[in-house]
Amino acid sequence: MPNKPYQFPKFEPLDQSTMRFWCAKTGSFLRSFEQDTGINDLDTNMEVLLDIFDRIEKRRVYFHIFYDGCTLGEINEASLLCFWIVKLNPFSGRNIAANLINAKIALHFLIHVLAYHAKKKGKKINYTDQIASDLLYAFRYRDLSKEAIMALAEGLIY
Amino acid sequence: MDITFSEEEYNKYLVSRVYPKNERIRGEDETIWDAAMEGAQVLKSTPDGCAVLESLAKVGM
Questions:
Q1: pTM (2 d.p.)
Q2: I need a labelling partner for B26 at 20 to 30 A (CA). Which of A15, A56, B3, B40 fits?
Q3: How many Å apart are CA A37 and CA A153, to the nearest integer?
Q4: Exposed, middle or buried by CB within 10 Å (0-12, 13-18, 19+), for A107?
Q5: How far apart are CA A30 and CA A52, in angstroms?
Q6: B30 in contact with A at a CB cutoff of 8 Å?
């Protein structure tokens, strides 16, 4: 049974077609974000976005190896993506601070995934203007760790 | 001092290797963005959901 670092394989770079597919999906979501918020002309730093995809896939492997073959659930994956968006700020917009636009995109995205998950589980999301405002602040100033966002997100479904 | 453990303590260690709840609905090869887009449809389908979208658009602006 592998327990030594050298007994595990190295994580290989992700292939271009997979990256392009994820970029296209990200673009679709951003267009939806632009329509919903009226914030247009978003730009993406591709180097940072590809780095985020890479980090999430590494975390997926981490879950599998260190959590007894566990898959990465949607809530944890969404939380992880939020963490990297607010930390690395891959998106930018005109006349809006980088940390604000990235926090807004991360919050928008997280609430959408929670709405999806809640619907599938026959539950609801605990959303108020105040919760949104507090989360946006925490995202904007990067107050939350990966695990904190995961735990918080899980608690927003009831 | 000697530090050691009993069989019972080792078994407790094994049992304690419990991880946080981590449920996945879609397949692992499906993107999280698809779940988010489906979430958009969920939100747009109810008045409460539309209110959430309005609130999200305004927050921080």
A1: 0.93
A2: A15
A3: 22
A4: buried
A5: 16
A6: no
Residue B50 contacts A, CB cutoff 8 Å: no
* Closest CB to A72 among B24, B53, B61: B24
In order along its 158 residues, chain A shows pLDDT tens digits of 788 999 999 999 999 999 999 999 999 999 999 999 999 999 999 999 999 999 999 999 998 988 888 889 999 999 999 999 999 999 999 999 999 999 999 999 999 999 999 999 999 999 999 999 999 999 999 889 999 999 999 999 99
Mark yes or no for CB contact B55/A127 under 8 Å. Answer: yes
Q: Decide if B40 touches A, using CB distance below 8 A.
A: yes
Q: Would you give the DSSP letter of residue A13? A: P
3-state secondary structure of A93: strand
CB interface of A with B, residues 74-93, below 8 Å? 74-78, 81
A29-35's contacts with Cβ under 8 Å and 24+ in sequence apart are A29/A109, A29/A112, A29/B33, A29/B36, A29/B37, A30/A91, A30/A105, A32/B37, A32/B40, A33/A105, A33/A108, A33/A109
CA-CA-CA-CA dihedral for B37, B38, B44, B45, to nearest 10 = 170
Tokens of A50: 């590809």
Say yes or no for a CB contact (<8 Å) between B32 and A74: yes
